[in-house]
Amino acid sequence: MPGSPITYFANPHIITSPAALEALKQRFGLDKPVWVQFTLYLENLFSWPPNFGLSYLFYPTPVFTVIMECLPWTLFLVGVSTIITAIIGILIGVVTGSRPGSKLDTSVISVSMILWTMPFFWLGIILLWIFGLTFHLFPIAGAASRGFSASNPLGISDIPDVLWHAFLPMMTLVIAAYAGYSLIMRNTMVNELSQDYILMARAKGLSERAVLLGHAARNAMLPMITLIGLNVGYVVSGALLVEIVFAYPGLGYLTYRAVLAHDFPLLQGLFFIVSVAVVTANYLADLTYAFFDPRIKY
Amino acid sequence: MRKSELITKRTESHEVSKLRNIIVDRRAQIGFGIIIVFSFLALTAPIISPYSPYAFPSPGRPYSPPSAKFLLGTDYLGEDVLSELIYGARVSMLVGIIVAFLATTFGTIVGVVAGYYGRFVDEGLMRATDIVLILPSLPLMIILAAYLGPSLQTVIFVLTVTTWPLVARVVRSQTLSLRERPFTDSERVAGASDFRIITKILIPNLATIIAANAVLMVTTAIVGEAGLDFIGLGDITVVSWGTMLYWAQSYAIFNGAWWWVMAPGICIVLVGLGFVLISVSIESVFNPRLRTS
Questions:
Q1: Measuring CA to CA, which residue among A234, A228, A243 is closest to residue A71?
Q2: ipTM computed for the complex
Q3: Which of B77, B81, B165, B179 is the most buried if burial means most Cβ atoms within 10 Å?
Q4: pLDDT tens digits for A183-206?
Q5: Least Cα separation, residue B199 to chain A (angstroms)
């Protein structure tokens, strides 16, 4: 990383006096050896509330406070769209996987692949344009019609309005991400349907519906749990871009503003919080897997 | 020694016949068709593009819709969108291929070494791989790009850093199974060095899976590059599909310039799809299990 924090925080063309720079260095602890600085950083990280320093953009609000205000919006966006995406992807995978090679299968796979390569933000711009600007069906920016803050929070009566605002960003995430699930679910279904226990189930005279849903799909779902966990990082990355397009007040839009304002403490804090969230999601997915598959023990 | 060479030879001729299968595969034909067209556009950009995308004064009026003079219209400065697309193909293809090459090379080395030597080498390398793999890629790219400053080199570096673990994982798991095969054992018994086993036995046998991943990596890199440019972390003075969308995001939609938004997005999807089709084709030809009726 080039330069020291001082060169970002205090413009050397304005603060020219060496004594003033020295005072700033002491103020930020930059005169201490690097390992002392690092222990201080860790100490601040593990205190409560974690101390990531002060944001430049929202000076003098602590970075942690700024992030906590935006975090719920991203959790909402990513959480709800992950559930919808997984359900739609699994359903499409079951339908196409039970008729591999059919016309339906090949056409759905082709469409899925096109949507899968589509950049999240471009899809967002297109949806925003069609449904927001041309037909005025959905709002083009923000998370709610009225202003809100910690002292003036949104209530239960605002739920329809919030959902209305979240519809387009969520639809973008679902359309761009469902293919990841449906393509893998399809392949697992094809694999499961060729197993002996399926032949056995058919020989017992079970209905096709029971064979597909009760036997094949149930087993094919197992890898999906791991995939949902692994995909959280991907969806979070997508959500960050989609939030920028829809000016949605979550972590992505905050990251964008932090980049534009060169707010390095805020960027570092954001990266840390997002990473912790993604790692936690993966850990939970692993635990869930062990719950559903008794062969796995940790 | 002689026997193992025979085996290697036989697998090679086997691979050649498989290559023929790829060439006749419909998906690969479409994929190669798209890539050849866009490579041609990128290579001959100064000759075939009707205007220079950096022309000053600009050739047309701002926000002109598509016409005979400007086939895909003009942008907010009056620059020709078609010329920008053709020049943008250079950046996208270049970044895509360089990143895929670097990430594949580095990922393969890490994966083969971890898989072949096993034990603590494997543990160490794979834990490092997992750490990078699990970190959300876009925030990691953003923070790296923000510190390194916006430029094409930054974009290439950042994309390489975030994509190599995918290759390392795949290559390692394949190496683990190849290491236990009889032809590797016979080479080892014959006294071959580790370096010889890795370069003469493991890498040739891993070639297809590496190729399929490398081709897929190009798509990942092209979409990733567009995303970074879109946020303004690339070099916004260079014309690329991502920077076109960066400017279009602020100016196009409120001026009804749909051609300016549609064109770069469709190009990204087409090129991305081209590489995905080739990758899928390579995989299905070499992995018959995916071809189940």
A1: A243
A2: 0.82
A3: B81
A4: 888 888 888 888 888 888 888 888
A5: 32
